[in-house]
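step 3/5: co-fold with coenzyme A
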Amino acid sequence: MPHIRPAESKDIKDIEYICRMTAGPEARRNEDIGKKIALTYSTYYARAERETSFVLDDNGKAVGYILCAPDYSKYVKGYRKNEVRKLWEIEKRQSVTAFFLPFGYLPFKKKYPAHLHIDILDGYQGKGYGSQLMDTLLEKLKSMDVPGVMLIVDKENTGAQRFYERKRFSKIASALGGIVMAKEI
Ligand SMILES: CC(C)(COP(=O)(O)OP(=O)(O)OC[C@H]1O[C@@H](n2cnc3c(N)ncnc32)[C@H](O)[C@@H]1OP(=O)(O)O)[C@@H](O)C(=O)NCCC(=O)NCCS
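step 4/5: write tokens
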């Protein structure tokens, strides 16, 4: 029976795989593109934010995650020093995209210092696990006195937007071709 637990260092490969598999057909088809996407959106949290990152575990394998950086300043420093630098060695253009990514969170960091990513492999979606992952993270952020959490969702991803609205997130702005959604804790 799948269950939720804190992310561990051994989960990094599974987390990168989930990120790639839920990032659209191009990333699924092409391993190199998938690798860059994973390094842009998931590796930092699996490496440096495990206190606020959780996985859905099925028989020892992570099949879903919620990844969260609770503090913008720590995130921007660590992400640029490691993942953005690594991307620079792989492909300059993706590295530049990654360098600018934190600016999407910057205007909201005072009220919503935390931001999150949530993804679940296909066969495990629609079974209540996303909701449980979100509740687990919100409880953790509450215990840490983090005042608010935000995310950026693609404007085409209306399913995920409905999911966030069900979890009482509100749309607060548009940024980087996406919609900013946020929740006070
Ligand atoms: C979005 C996602 C994390 C939701 O997790 P989930 O486990 O599938 O969702 P749950 O089963 O916990 O559903 C929770 C609630 O959200 C609603 N919901 C979930 N996915 C939905 C969708 N695609 N469209 C409409 N409503 C949805 C459910 O109806 C449910 O509402 P209820 O509690 O009133 O019944 C998951 O479907 C996923 O990983 N999708 C692909 C990747 C993705 O889009 N990630 C988000 C990127 S910003």
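step 5/5: annotate
The first helix runs from residue 12 to 21.
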